[in-house]
Give the backbone structure.
Amino acid sequence: MSQREIIKQKLKIYKVVLLNERTMKPNIILMNFTHVYEQERFINDIHFQWIDCTDLNGTNCYCDAEAAKVIRQRMAPYLPEGIHFIDSGNYHYISKFWTDKIKTPFSLVVFDHHPDMQPSLFDNLMSCGCWVKKVLDTNPYLQKVCIVGAAEKLIKALHPNYGEKLKFYSETELSHEEGWNRFSHEHLNEPVYISVDKDVLDIKSAVTNWDQGSLSLTELEKLLSIILKKEEIIGVDICGECSSSLDVFQKNRELSINSKANKELLNLFLSNQNEIHPL
């Protein structure tokens, strides 16, 4: 029996064990740090489970140990399966907290204009810029990471030593047909967790706190569809909201663009929900 067949057999067992708990939990979760989702229309038509973090200090860009403990406690009732909206890219480190819940071999696919592979300034301090490296260094179940859409110059500035465990598909590479062909032939032997930062998108498709990439929303959806059709998906998270502008017209424009992107991504994942499996 191959490794992939063994993993699938384990998943079937876990599905039976967790069936009752799974059916009691909604599979779409909003993690509320900045109140931004309360202003986006995409939440109006679907039932979400809210995890309120608006009362916490020590969470913006960097997450201190005390805040991390409380966030983990609030996330404790929920499984890593499903679709998680985790606010702006300043809170992308929340992806580590979700993947820490996975207790079987898995691969991580990250769509982000930034590799998020910087060394941590302090061992007990999590940040939005180091979380991928933290997952690589600390998660015993992680088999492989694919970072998709990162800027070429940011990738070249890194000196990772992870061998075949880490693979990049840069923004530059994806601007050519051969890059898409290479990505479409990527095969992962384990179930996959997907993390999307909307800063991978161009400014017509999303408005974020960070410098952005060049993918259109349609291109991102095509890349995601390749994974959804080929791989067994554990769960998904999405970040990349924007801090409120003081200009009311600008604020409404940003909310409209991001709400549209979130709705389209949510619909994409819901239309492929049979591919999202519990652990």
